[in-house]
Amino acid sequence: MVTRPLLSALLLLILLPAGAVQAQGAVGTMETVPSAAMPAPYDAQLSKLSEVLGAVHYLRNLCADAPEPQWRKAMQDLIAAETANEPARQEQFVAAFNRGYRGFASVHSTCTASAREAGERYRNEGATLVTEITTRFGN
Fold first, then answer.
1. Residue of 55, 64, 68 lying closest to 111 (CA atoms)
2. 79-105 residue pLDDT tens
3. Percent of the chain topping pLDDT 70
4. How far is it, in rounded angstroms, from Cα 104 to Cα 130?
5. Fewest beta carbons within 10 Å, which of 43, 80, 116, 125?
6. Rounded to 5, what percent of the chain is helix, strand, coil?
7. pLDDT of 16 higher than 90
8. DSSP-derived secondary structure for 26-81
9. Using a CB cutoff of 8 Å and minimum separation of 24, what contacts does 26-31 make?
10. Residue 31: is its pLDDT beyond 50?
């Protein structure tokens, strides 16, 4: 179940001003025990948020002076909170994060005005998603 503290932390992270960064790579998988759990009603939104976090992680690190590992850490925290013992959901969110990361890595190899603008747009989209998920499904 999605928790307000986790999503609130993600919202704050997304809204933080740009810092320094260099690319850190994609999120790896975590070991879990198989489960036949039903998908949560907010999985589509969390999948999109995962993709947004991957894009923001790449773009912010591309354009920053020092690493910003908090984006990858936020994704790992989201996976840990949402997919305990649910490897199929975990794979879904990891794949979405990596898709967002690799999508921009294939287009932007240096920081440009376009990359900075895309990072800002994705941060805004992430903030909107977190607010919507928290409002509708948070507890």
1. 64
2. 999 888 899 999 999 999 999 999 999
3. 73
4. 21
5. 80
6. 65, 0, 35
7. no
8. -----------PPPPTTHHHHHHHHHHHHHHHHHHHHH-SS--THHHHHHHHHHHH
9. 26/54, 26/97, 26/98, 26/101, 26/102, 27/54, 27/72, 27/75, 27/76, 27/79, 27/94, 27/97, 27/98, 27/101, 28/94, 29/90, 29/91, 29/94, 30/76, 30/79, 30/80, 30/90
10. no
**Model confidence, pTM:** 0.75
Q: Which two tokens stand for residue 26?
A: 């994609």
Tokens read off for 106:
């294939």
- Do 42 and 4 contact (CB within 8 A), yes or no? no
What are the Cα distances from residue 11, in Å, to 43, 51, 55, 103, 132?
A: 17, 15, 15, 23, 11
How far apart are the two ends of the chain, measured CA to CA in Å?
A: 8
In the predicted model, what is the mean pLDDT of residues 69-77?
91
